[in-house]
Amino acid sequence: MGDDERRLLLDAFDSNWIAPLGPHVDAFELEFCQAIGATHAAALSSGTSALHLALILAGVERGDEVLCSTLTFSASANAIAYLGARPVFLDSEELSWNLDPDLLANELESAAQRGRPPKALVLVHLYGQSADLTKILPLCEQYSVVLVEDAAEALGATWGNRQAGTAGRFGVFSFNGNKIITTSGGGILACKDKADAAAARKLATQSRDPAAHYEHSQIGYNYRLSNLLAAVGRGQIRVLPARIETRRAVFRRYYTAFKEVPGLVPMPEASWGKSTRWLSVFLIDPDKLGVNREDLRCRLEAADIEARPLWKPMHLQPVFRDCRKVGGAVSERLFEQGLCLPSGSAMTHAQQDRVIEIVLKTISGGRNSG
Ligand SMILES: *Cc1c(COP(=O)(O)O)cnc(C)c1O
């Protein structure tokens, strides 16, 4: 956090506007839209609540099928389950690790033939990188599937000269503590249509109808962002470009240190955009390195350094075991071999050098014994 965040938070505090809603919420929505080129935005209590509201507004109902990237955090799929709808999990492509557009094309075609088109697609932009929207967007249009972009991990990622999360009817963003900028907790639902944004704000405030008394004609939720946290968000959105450069610099240091090591392969950056490198992710090929991902993760842990496996694909999760999946081998291999290295914006060079040193030492030990 910086001086702007402190000043804005104290301003909200001193104004005594300690409520969900307030001037900072309106200003945050506006400044967020200006920063990333979104049309409308509703500030919410989390990225998960933004996903939930997007799917409600997309008309998803009990029993509907909703397509979803399998390689993601569970929140993407949980929102589908909240509505009693059935997630169908689609595999990743090698190029970007995001949803495979060819699998999507096949699935949409066969769903149309079955006469059961899915209502929506939850498209995840993973670890700071945009999915292949040039192929995916026209497919959604052709088959009238509502595109919900889960850009919780990819605020600031580009696709051509546009931003991930602004192509679909809905874009979901998160300001949870682990994301590239944070309000400690919070989210935004970006909407193409003004009416969607207004409807999201209403659903998020217990669906109050306009009346002096409390009148409700639909079920609502308590999903609005507080004025205090919106103040923090206004300060954070200003530092987004600097944060992206820092994350990319962290990645570049790892990349430079590891580029001569066969079998230690970075997450690719696809040609259609610029990744924020929210996390620095590498694949560990045990055949070439003589150590596997878990060996390396445990060695780092023993040195008090936290590294994490990739998201375990949703089609492998016990809670979603009865769901349909399309493909799966690519994301399974990524899960098996992928490791997220420490990537925080506040990391010092010395701290990063320690990570690099332990990785290289572990690998040379593996090679000698293998
Ligand atoms: C973090 C995250 C979310 C959820 O955001 P919250 O603000 O924590 O609810 C959703 N999808 C993905 C892919 C995420 O990484």
Report on the structure:
42% of the residues lie in helices and 15% in strands. It is an alpha/beta fold and 370 residues long. It has two domains: 237 residues, Aspartate Aminotransferase, domain 2 (3-Layer(aba) Sandwich), CATH 3.40.640.10; 129 residues, Aspartate Aminotransferase, domain 1 (Alpha-Beta Complex), CATH 3.90.1150. The strands form three sheets. Strands 1-9-8-5-4-2-3-13 form an eight-stranded mixed β-sheet, sandwiched between helices. A four-stranded antiparallel β-sheet has the order 10-11-14-12. Helix 1 runs antiparallel to helix 8, helix 2 runs parallel beside helix 8 and helix 3 crosses helix 4. The N and C termini lie far apart (46 Å). Pyridoxal-5'-phosphate binds next to helix 3 and helix 4.
Bound molecules: pyridoxal-5'-phosphate
Order of helices and strands: HHEHEHEHEHEEEEEHHEEHHEEHEH
Distance between the termini: 46 Å
Percentage beta strand: 15-25%
Question: What's the structural blueprint in terms of helices and strands?
Answer:
Elements: H1 3-14, H2 23-36, E1 40-44, H3 47-57, E2 65-69, H4 75-82, E3 86-90, H5 101-114, E4 120-124, H6 133-142, E5 146-150, E6 158-159, E7 162-163, E8 170-174, E9 187-191, H7 194-204, H8 227-258, E10 264-266, E11 280-284, H9 286-289, H10 293-302, E12 308-309, E13 324-326, H11 329-337, E14 338-341, H12 349-369
Pyridoxal-5'-phosphate binds at residues 46-48, 72-73, 75-76, 124, 150, 152-153, 174, 176, 187.
Structural descriptors:
370 residues, alpha/beta, Aspartate Aminotransferase, domain 2, Aspartate Aminotransferase, domain 1, 8-stranded mixed beta sheet, 12 helices, 14 strands, binds pyridoxal-5'-phosphate
